[in-house]
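Before the break, one more example. Copy the sequence into your notebook; we will annotate it together after we see the structure.
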Amino acid sequence: MRRAALFALLFLGSGCLDGFRTLVTVVTYDPFGQSFWVERRLQDVTPAFFGCDQAPEACVAAVQRVLDLSPPELAVSPADTLVLRLLDSGPVDPVVALERVGDRVDIVVRYGAPLGGRAAEDTLVRAEFDASHKGRGVYRLVVDSAASVLPPEGRHRIRRVAQAGTDGLEWHVWWELPGSTRDVTTTLPVSDQGTGLLVAWPELRNRLPWSDGAQPGPRPAAAVAESPQSHAPGLRVVAHDPRINGAADSARLAESASALLPAIETCWEGQAALQPGLEGYAFLFARVDSHGHVASTSVYGTLAAPSLYACLERAFHAWTPPGVLNVDVEFPFALSSKAPR
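Here is what the structure looks like once it is written out:
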């Protein structure tokens, strides 16, 4: 199971699983951009990974191809295949670095991964909305146990799901993390074969472009809409895709939600002044009848802020359905009064 998971984790085929010892992946969840920031560390890479186990001169060019994200159309090494598959998965701002830890050489791949895309799915980490959490709802990270030989550090809950296997039903394990957790690390052994790059070719020590480890931090994926620069430093209001029950044009509904942003930001400014550093979600729900009129509305969320919800309810009364009938629609808004990292 874990070997099969590794194919997805590395975007590789079964012939490309050698060449480094361990895969360590850190996934950081951005609930406002609804995206992951991913760091994959391929520890202790060998000459075979770059296809240069016969001559050290070939390693310099092979490493540079990987760092430049410019592999040949027909891969000549597992490293080339890694980059080709990575680019095909749709990452945001991918960066590859070469780092040295003593005589150990690591390849570090960093990129953004919008939720719902292949780059996020390949991490085997999901962000699920739990509507039952304390009656308010919360997004939580859920990790496929096939992604790691070690369970996540700290508190977590085990979820077992029955699925068909070669010997009948098998139990597949997922790890559910607390709603406050925003990052998770997975560790997967790959191969104990081969000699490390600098052990095999010590003359490369002064010929390769080493990174100092300083890399850009997470960049959130684009949301449906975001409020303009607020008067309050660090204040953010982000509208995400509406959730629809019924036949309706989601693009028109999203556009109508964007028109609510100024009023929602005014409500949020007042609440943020009372509770600095607050962040969470607010959900605006409306039921539209067969005549296109709003039959009922409700506002709820993940914040213990009744006065905020009352203000949002008043703002929501100004919403006009954009030509939809017999629809239930929920508009999620991410709210933060913290300065972006």
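The radius of gyration is 24 Å. The chain has nine helices and 15 strands. Try to locate both features in your own notes.
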